[in-house]
Design goal:
The chain has 99 residues and is mainly α. The protein has one domain. Helix content is 54%, strand content 10%. It is built from 2 helices and 2 strands; from the N terminus they run E-E-H-H. The protein has a two-stranded antiparallel sheet. The longest helix has 37 residues. It is flat. The two termini are 41 Å apart. 3% of the residues are buried.
Length: 99
């Protein structure tokens, strides 16, 4: 597992002037997935259950956010295609155009 050490320079941080470990998103994703799977099988220790529950809640929130974004992009792209077919111009920003 590769990690990165960074020095905290934010003035109001309790970790100011310390070096902390920063984990890559893939590692965090794997860790969360593991906790959710393990809590689903009821094998977490008593002091780990709250972590598994929080991971499940966070995963659910992330899935909702990703789905909402994906749906908005697809709807916007389809709207742009239809508007172009009828000779209309868009008034909202174009995310991407696929021709």
């Amino acid at each position: 597992m590769a990690t990165t050490l960074v020095e905290v320079t934010v003035k109001n941080s309790p970790h100011k002037d310390r070096t902390i470990v920063v984990y890559y998103s893939k590692f965090i994703e794997s860790l969360m997935r593991a906790y959710v799977m393990i809590i689903g099988h009821n094998v977490l220790q008593k002091n780990q259950i709250h972590i598994g529950r929080r991971c499940a809640i966070l995963q659910s929130a992330l899935v909702c956010s990703v789905l909402k974004t994906a749906i908005q992009q697809i709807v916007q792209e389809q709207c742009i295609i239809l508007m172009k077919q009828y000779g209309l111009k868009t008034l909202f920003p174009i995310v991407s155009e696929k021709n």
